[in-house]
From TrEMBL:
Organism of this sequence: Mohoua ochrocephala
Family: Belongs to the carbon-nitrogen hydrolase superfamily. NIT1/NIT2 family.
Claim: Electron transport is one of the keywords in the record: no
CDD domains from the UniProt entry: nit
Name listed for the protein in its UniProt record: omega-amidase
Stored Pfam families: CN_hydrolase
Annotated keywords: Hydrolase
EC identifiers of the protein: 3.5.1.3
Top-level taxon of origin: Eukaryota
Stretches assigned to the CN hydrolase domain: 1-246
Gene Ontology annotations for the cellular component aspect, listed alphabetically: mitochondrion
Coiled-coil regions listed: none
GO biological process: asparagine metabolic process; glutamine metabolic process; oxaloacetate metabolic process
Amino acid sequence: FRLALIQLHVSAVKSENLQRACGLVREASAKGAKLVALPECFNSPYGTQYFKEYAEKIPGESTQKLSEVAKECSIYLIGGRSIPEEDGGKLYNTCTVFGPDGALLAKHRKVHLFDINVPGKIQFKESETLSPGSSFSMFDTPYCKVGLGICYDMRFAEMAQIYGQKGCQLLIYPGAFNMTTGPAHWELLQRGRAVDNQLYVATVSPARDEKASYVAWGHSTVVNPWGEVIAKAGAEETVVYTDIDLKKLAEIRQQIPILSQKRCDLYGVEMKK
């Protein structure tokens, strides 16, 4: 099946972001994409100072638009971090998924908050404004089961292992790595998650905006279960297409059967809730 990753140029005007995102979703559908993903923070600039201003409840303006365009195009639509979600007085970094009938299939709240301090390069603390999610998020399609993470979640190998154990064959991480972590770890982490768990990994970033307060690395990518990069964007706004070949996934797992050769008598990773 064909996967499309929309690397969107995000402005400060929510309505413009939504309109452009929906237009690119329609374009991707017209080119045969069955599953389309938007980047982290596609409807607002990325930064703790913006989260409260742009926050919405779910359902709300942004998710209603996503539901409508998913139904119109009869596709599975992953809404990136569609919005900073407001719920019960707390804010979450939330990704929504809509099916071909427009129904909400999954809602993933970012589990690991991005609190880092790289001296002389970047200091960022999402926990100043956001609360963490506390659950895994998976959804079924006629093609395969898909697992979700958001950006920093990708650094935690245990999360990807759980998804693999639960039958996921594709992991999608909407993300916005920056100009320090992007060149260092963006592709490396994707290839690691893919080859460790013998599944496809896709990441979808906002396009790079050098004038923004937070400059995203871009380079939305798809990696196959052999650890090979099979599709990759540059820094500009674009749509990345790739065909997900589940026959190839099955062949790789048969050739190197690590999943059946794990020493569960010696170690294990478990989902607690």
